[in-house]
Amino acid sequence: MKSLIPQEERNKTISYIIVVCTGILFAVLLLNLGKVQSVLGKVLNAVMPFIIGICIALLLLPIVNRVEWFFTKLVFRRKPHPKLSRTLSVIIAYVVLIALVVGFISIVVPQLIASISSILQYISSFDVTRFAGKTARSISQWLAGIHLLGIEGEQLAKAWDEAVSGFIANLSSNGSQFVDYSSGLLSSLLNYSSGVLNGLMTLSGNIYTVLLQIFIGLISAFYLLIDKETFCAQVKKLLYAIFKPATCDRLVYWTRRGHRIFAGFITGKILDSFIIGVICYLCMLLFGIEYPLLISVIVGITNIIPFFGPYFGAIPSLLILLLVNPLSALWFLIFILILQQIDGNVIGPFILGDYVGLPPFWIMLAIVVGGKLFGFVGLLLSIPVFALAYAIVRTLVEKQLERRSLPRETEAFVNIPEKQTATKGPKVRKKK
Fold this sequence. Notes:
The chain has 432 residues and is mainly α. The protein has helices at 7-31, 33-75, 82-124, 128-144, 153-173, 175-203, 207-226, 228-242, 245-287, 292-302, 309-324, 326-352, 360-403, 416-419; strands at residues 147-148, 151-152.
């Protein structure tokens, strides 16, 4: 029987129904965001070992490809052994990974523990009066070396000493109250630190679960690297069995592009953070700033977080240096600002290339939303996820504009309202 609804109207009706259903589904998800987060959290916890395995496989994939090329082109050139080459490549990649982890633990961790122990001992024996006197002397010595606008440094140092002596005289009149307040504040900080330590001891009970997840992730990454072509072929076989060939071709294209974005971003960000940590350590040694290894590790690890990472690392580092030497904290602040500018404008773009290609506003939006919804994982992965979504939307928009014979460049739409002519009103017939 012939349908009473024309084909064009039927297609429009189906499109409207899909849009309305999508809007209703999105509204329901927003209204039940807490339940959705709970369900996603449980699912994420269940598949976390395999997510770790995929991340490990992505990190080791460049090493596996290069080592496999070496075996195929040089070692087994006359008589190829593809399975043996792949197995040896994966084993060598795992050896490199284990060597790096063991080397990091054996070299860095003992020095980190020594630095943290030294800081805790310093806090436990912290004297406010001695700290204030030491800070005042350091600033006075720094001011004595200044020659600015005809003002000699000795005059600045003398004015500073008079201000400090007045402050100390005022402090001596209320010294007991200040000492009691500082002692109470110090005891509160110590009690808080003991509570934090108790919390860390409680969290140590979950170490077994974390180690088990990492162990399962290592095993799954091994099998993923061994049979990566087989797994990719199985997924494509399933897609071509369900969807149309044109749809499958688009899915395969965007999957490969997403892989390039994720792998390039994560690998590049880790390499960038490692370089920043090394530069920070060498410069702190050169300038004689205290606790160079501890602060460099903090700066390097937090630099993995895009955009806000440098600030997250600079704040605790400044607090540590303020307790020990405020002048070193000032020099560190100047140094870290310069270092982050070099990283953001030179090192980062050189290593990451065009894997992201997002304006700063969208980067901030992606980080804030991703961190709010998914915590540290959201902070780390929100940029490549949003970059992939941004690329998909941009491609769809440009194709639609091309169908309508409109320009694809964004600059062409900047002055469109000014170019539009005002609509003419009805013509009025003039009277003779």
